[in-house]
Amino acid sequence: MGSVREVLADSLTFSLGEWFSPDFQHPFFQISFTVVPDSVKPIPANWVNDIELDEFGAEMGDVMGEGPVLSWSPEELNKRLVLALKRLDLSEDGLNTKKVNTMSRQELSHEKKRVKQELKRYDTEWRKQFKSLPNHSQKEVMRPLYIYYRKLKQQLVQVEQSRAGGLPGPDDSDDDAEDRQSMVADAVPTPESLVNASKPKGKKPGPYIEVQITQLEARANTLQQEKSTVRSKLREFQEGFVIQHHRKIRFHKDILPIEREYRMYKNIKEEIAKVESQLRTLRGSQ
């Protein structure tokens, strides 16, 4: 047994001695490299590691209702309508029964301006709180006033036409954009259709701006619906995650199952911001 051990020891010594001998050569020994400090070029971290998500808190706050308030509550929305009707000395039922065809031109004009002031007040207060104008769905609560405003406007146009022998009166084009953007959402345009829309020569730019506003309002409404659908999926995942792990989502690896929906949600929010920015520009040009 002793001789076997000696033979094995001699064989290993000889083999290992060749590996580490000064004349041993290998291709790896010929590779040249440069050491770069981490402060100059840090090694990128794998995103599935335990890296905290700086922006995820705000996104999930929006989804879970823990982030900044982005809209008035249903109770607050109804309160806005009630206060507007009270300032106008009207009731919601009275809007449907009031006979505008018995009002004089002066009464129609005065009433129209009063209603318009309340509709603008709603937009102004929304912009003051949320830093953007309300979209079509966010103004839905004010629909009764918009319908009443449209009746007043149409009746005033008829009175003006009868006074001018059938010719449109000076008030015929007043606030058409506000009517369209608040009451019409017939088509959902693509961004390409908005970019490629051309204005015929010799025409006033107003109507075409109004059409673009209407299209953008419809686009914003569609995006809001898509956002709501994706948000429901994220909310469901978040609630299940909290139950399973007893903590909120914090790391990139936490969102692997819903990464696609999460990225989609962020993209939709960015698209909504772009549409709202375009709307502000168009409205400012009127």
Write the layout of secondary structure elements.
Blueprint: H1 2-19, H2 56-64, H3 74-87, H4 92-97, H5 105-130, H6 143-163, H7 176-183, H8 191-195, H9 206-245, H10 259-285
Helix pairs in contact: 5-6, 7-9, 9-10
Can you describe this structure in just a few lines?
By secondary structure, this protein is mainly α.
What would you say this structure looks like, in words?
- This protein is mainly alpha-helical.
- It contains 10 helices and no strands.
- The protein has helices spanning 2-19, 56-64, 74-87, 92-97, 105-130, 143-163, 176-183, 191-195, 206-245, 259-285.
End-to-end Cα distance, whole Å, is: 104 Å
Helix and strand composition category = mainly alpha
Low-confidence runs (pLDDT<50, min 5 residues)?
A: 64-68, 167-174, 176-204
Number of strands: 0
CA gyration radius, whole angstroms: 34 Å
Mean pLDDT over all positions: 75
Q: Give the overall shape, derived from the CA principal axes.
A: elongated
Contiguous helical run count: 10
**Run of helices and strands:** HHHHHHHHHH
Helix content: 55-70%
Largest sheet: none
Strand content: under 5%
Could you list some keywords that capture this structure?
elongated, about 290 residues, 10 helices, mainly alpha
